[in-house]
Structure formats: C-alpha cells, structure tokens
Amino acid sequence: MTNDQPPKRQGSGADQGWAVISYLLAGMLIWGGAGWLIDWWLDVPNHLATFIGGVGGAGAGLYLVVKKMGQSE
C-alpha cells in the first residue's frame, strides 16, 4: 500500500473558532508585549510601540488564520 497514513480528523466548528481566537489573541499579546517592553525600555510616554505591536500582532494572527484555516483538503 502506498498510503499507510491514518485519515485526518476533521475538527468541529467550535475547534476552528477557538483556534482563530487563540491565533489573534496570541499575536496581539506577544507583539503588543514586545512593544510595551520597547516603550518601557525607551521610556516613551505615549505607548506608540505598544499600539504598533498590537496592530502588527493582530495582522500576523490574521495571516496565520488565513494560512491555516484557508487550506482545503
């Protein structure tokens, strides 16, 4: 047999929804946290790097959602 791999388990809609939420929140928390550290390190009063990191993290999370969930098999 050439295809000895087990069939892939299809996730439910709730599993996919939680995956989307976790990608978006993780991106915003990780990159927003990095921006906050840059703001703290440079002593920036207006938190510009935190905002840029949060928006960039949301964009990166959205990219991962499209890349992972947009695949059809």
UniProtKB/TrEMBL annotation:
Keywords from the UniProt entry: Membrane, Transmembrane, Transmembrane helix
Keyword Membrane: yes
TM annotation in the entry: 20-42, 48-66
Protein name in the entry: F0F1-ATPase subunit Ca2+/Mg2+ transporter
UniProt organism field: Actinorhabdospora filicis
